Amino acid sequence: MTKRIAGYGLVAACMLPAFAMAQDVTLSGKTSSTITATVVPLNNFDVTDEKGGWFDSGLEMKQLGGWDTPYEVEARLRVLSTSGTFQVRLDTPLEIRNQADPQKLFQRPSVTLAPDGGQPKAIVTGQGATFSNPVPPVAGEDSVGYYTLAVAAYPPAGDFKATAGTYSGVLSLTFEPTIKTR
């Protein structure tokens, strides 16, 4: 019998917290808060062709004048920028070489970039040329500018028969956004 009483006592003791928790509690004072957050957009910088893609098959230079005129090509670029200003530089000098005879090299290559309606600026190795996109139509949005990239080079010295062949080169440019200082 003593064991039963002790067992019932143990069961009753275990149930006390359950009875103690079943009480209503009245809260007073501030019971809610307002939370606000600010989302800061990322700085965007994107250079594409004018349609949002890229020149997957390369650019083909053509000689539109006589033998003593340069081979040329132009490409239209679209630059999307949060800051609106950027600089461009040539990573390495442009070399356009004959694929069968690398000693044959195009002469006086030049690279320029011009904003729509603006004057072209020479793009050279190790020295950035600065450009500014038009102001966006809505404050706080990214700016978009269109530019013409032009590449020109004179054919190698010699007659047509001696210099004929397939030539190729790599145009390596770096486009960098610049930070506006106050």
What do these coordinates show?
With 182 residues, the chain is an alpha+beta fold. The protein has a single domain, classed as CFA/I fimbrial subunit E, pilin domain (Immunoglobulin-like, Sandwich), CATH 2.60.40.2040. The protein has helices at 2-21, 160-163; strands spanning 45-49, 71-81, 85-90, 96-98, 107-115, 121-122, 129-132, 143-154, 167-169, 173-177. The chain has a five-stranded antiparallel sheet with strand order 1-2-8-5-6, with no helix packed on it. Strands 7-3-10 form a three-stranded antiparallel sheet, with no helix packed on it.
List keywords for this structure.
182 residues, alpha+beta, Immunoglobulin-like, three-stranded antiparallel beta sheet, Fimbrial assembly protein
